[in-house]
UniProtKB/TrEMBL annotation:
This is EAL domain-containing protein. It comes from the Bacteria. The chain holds residues 618 to 895 of 920 of the full protein. Residues 23-277 form the EAL domain. It is found in: Membrane. The lineage of its organism: Bacteria, Pseudomonadati, Pseudomonadota, Betaproteobacteria, Burkholderiales.
Length: 278
């Protein structure tokens, strides 16, 4: 089998080395950007579906590239995950979110939690619970002001290290959220075992609310089960009033999406913290 692998490697080598060079270049660029602190967080509101009150803000990282301008995360997070650079970048994000919260606190703004995206790989390098504790302490941030967005792949299987770190984070009072729900393979019972607080339904399902009853039935089922399990439900990617109305009728707890607000730089969101969004 090993010899086979070698043979096919040689067969594809011209193309592979091209890709490899490209990859090494982008990896180096990303590494330099991390060292050069070229990243910034934007914040997207998550609001109560009934009252329109601000409930949380999701921190979404952007690469402010000196030549290319603002690079969206879909263009560098996958590479960061593959190369392990996500560990360093992820810590940068935690640090920036905590220091921003401290700044808002100093400005006497009405604070709501900041929700931070965490990749599965960040659990395999050091202890993420300790990392959060360190940055929250450093900036005097109460754990109730931090939420963590996890993907379903963090929930799969029985990884002892991940469950211990999640339990440690939970016990501090940090809320756990499952992101992009419905796109992976986790079951609600797995989520319950992890003691999750919030279930965020992927925007692919929100967009089905425009076309017939099928999407509505999906949300109805998810919302009623989540409520039985004491989880609150967020719909992401809400873009229209019609989608909002359906979600309100189904007692979806919170909504997020362009209809409510796009992700905004910290300076702009500061002015909008007292706003009623709906
Ligand atoms: P996500 O966590 O699912 O974030 C939601 C994405 O949907 C964001 O894209 C957001 O700007 C976009 N979005 C929000 N409302 C709407 C809407 O109404 N319609 C549509 N079509 N899109 C909407 P963004 O900011 O480009 O982020 C993409 C992904 O990159 C995120 O998906 C997340 O998986 C990842 N990401 C972003 N920041 C971080 C980070 O700090 N750490 C990690 N590990 N991943 C991150
Ligand atoms: Ca997210
Ligand atoms: Ca999402
Ligand atoms: Ca996503």
């Amino acid at each position: 089998a090993k010899e086979n692998g070698k043979a096919s490697y040689q067969f594809f080598q011209p193309q592979l080395s091209q890709n490899l060079i490209g990859r090494l270049n982008s990896e180096q660029a990303l590494r330099a950007a991390i060292d050069g602190d070229e990243f910034e967080l934007h914040y997207q509101p998550r609001v109560d579906a009934a009252s329109g009150e601000l409930r949380s803000m999701e921190a979404l990282v952007r690469w402010m590239h000196p030549q290319r301008g603002m690079v969206p995360p879909d263009e560098f997070i996958p590479l960061a995950e593959e190369t392990g650079l996500i560990v360093k970048l992820g810590e940068l994000v935690i640090e920036k979110a905590c220091s921003q919260l401290a700044r808002w606190k100093a400005e006497n703004l009405p604070l709501v939690p900041v929700s931070i995206n965490v990749s599965p790989r960040q659990f395999n390098h050091g202890n993420i619970a300790e990392l959060f504790v360190w940055h929250m302490k450093l900036h005097g941030i109460d754990p109730s002001l931090v939420e963590i967005e996890l993907t379903e792949s963090c929930m799969m299987g029985d990884d002892q290290a991940i469950s211990e770190q999640l339990a440690a984070i939970k016990s501090l009072g940090v809320k756990l959220l499952i992101d992009d729900f419905g796109t992976g393979y986790s079951s609600l019972s797995q989520l319950q075992r992890r003691d999750l607080d919030i279930l965020k339904v992927d925007k692919a399902f929100t967009s089905t609310l425009d076309s017939g009853k099928e999407g509505e039935v999906f949300f109805m089922a998810i919302i009623s089960m989540a409520h039985v399990l004491n989880m609150s439900v967020v719909a992401e990617g809400v873009e229209t009033l019609e989608q909002l109305r359906v979600l309100q009728a189904l007692s979806c707890n919170e909504v997020q999406g362009y209809f409510v607000s796009r992700p905004l730089p910290a300076g702009e969101i500061s002015q909008l913290m007292r706003k009623r969004y709906l």
